[in-house]
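Narrative of accomplishments. A recurring question from our advisory board has been how the design workflow behaves on a single, concrete structure rather than in aggregate. To address it, we present the structure tokens for one chain from the evaluation set, followed by the sequence designed for it. No filtering or post-editing was applied between the two.
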């Protein structure tokens, strides 16, 4: 109830106030902010994945500018020696308006990262995008086998089968690299698991399948029981430390993050930045009012 109320009023709150509790989760507005935040994390032994905030553009003209911004991010971050890679959302390049145009832009970004021997992660958006994002990944993977990875969402009932269906892209020398997360969007019950335990069960089932197949899972969660379950699987399959990584969002559960780093596991933090932070934060909360309780805590329990 309170969560829903906050989700409703948030877009009308002054940006300055919203920034007070968003700044913990966003690196800033500029590329320099993202590079600075990444270098700080690098000092703690943490890798990063930089993301320019923005999604679901309405006008294809914006896609060209967004591509240019990503190319600049890569140029600057590589020059600064950031230890990290890049994440992007295909709807930021017009995936749902014109798939081929979006593909062309994203291909250029992946080619630029590849020219530096680096890597781009294709984020997974809501379910109308799933097939298109898998197809996009397939095409990019054919051209840039070592430089591109995909996100999969444990709450989608199709995910276990999607992993199996993509086995043809796996090579022993270049393992398929999937980030697995729970999933942030509100999806219909017909296609998604809704219950916390059920989602966690499928999360670990998907990770187990990836490990059995020799794939490289990026285990993206802040949920301690899921982290512990993943650690048990890593132990069960005696997975070497360079065949998986953990990932967390900027500013979230730093203590859990540190404990994994201290145990010698690879950790990568998602570093979002950009002028569109306000829209991003308010949309996330509208989509998933449960996030409002996180914000309530940030405001009242500091
Ligand atoms: P939860 O059970 O949701 O959370 C566990 C605990 O973590 C919570 O109790 C809370 O204390 C803390 N927590 C979780 N999230 C936050 C937060 N944002 N702020 C503050 N505290 C928090 N989703 C997609 O759909 N597509 C993607 O491409 C995608 N990429 C992601 C990349 C990374 C690196 C990460 C970590 C997540 C990504 N997500 C993505 C979001 C993901 O799907 C989940 O919505 C989010 O991670 C919360 O799930 P959880 O596993 O942490 O578990």
């Amino acid at each position: 109830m309170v969560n829903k109320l906050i989700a409703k009023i948030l877009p009308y709150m002054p940006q300055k106030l919203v920034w007070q509790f968003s700044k913990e989760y966003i690196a800033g507005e500029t590329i320099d902010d993202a590079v600075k935040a990444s270098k700080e994390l690098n000092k703690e032994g943490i890798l990063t994945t930089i993301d320019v905030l923005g999604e679901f553009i309405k006008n294809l003209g914006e896609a060209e500018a967004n591509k240019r911004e990503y190319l600049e991010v890569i140029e600057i971050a590589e020059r600064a020696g950031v230890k990290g890679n890049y994440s992007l959302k295909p709807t930021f390049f017009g995936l749902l308006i014109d798939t081929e145009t979006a593909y062309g832009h994203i291909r250029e970004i992946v080619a630029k990262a590849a020219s530096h021997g680096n890597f781009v992660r294709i984020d997974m958006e809501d379910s109308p995008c799933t097939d298109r994002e898998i197809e996009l990944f397939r095409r990019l993977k054919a051209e840039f086998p070592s430089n591109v990875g995909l996100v999969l969402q444990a709450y989608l009932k199709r995910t276990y089968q999607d992993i199996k269906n993509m086995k043809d892209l796996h090579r022993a020398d270049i393992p398929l690299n999937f980030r697995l997360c729970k999933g942030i969007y509100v999806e219909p019950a017909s296609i998604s698991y809704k219950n916390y335990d059920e989602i966690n069960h499928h999360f670990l089932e998907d990770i187990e399948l990836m490990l059995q197949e020799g794939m490289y899972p990026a285990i993206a969660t802040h949920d301690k029981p899921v982290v512990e379950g993943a650690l048990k699987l890593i132990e069960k399959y005696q997975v070497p430390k360079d065949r998986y990584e953990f990932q967390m969002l900027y500013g979230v559960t730093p203590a859990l993050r540190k404990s994994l780093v201290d145990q010698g596991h690879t950790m990568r933090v998602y570093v979002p930045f950009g002028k569109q932070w306000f829209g991003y934060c308010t949309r996330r909360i509208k989509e998933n009012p449960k996030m409002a309780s996180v914000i309530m805590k940030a405001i009242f329990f500091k």
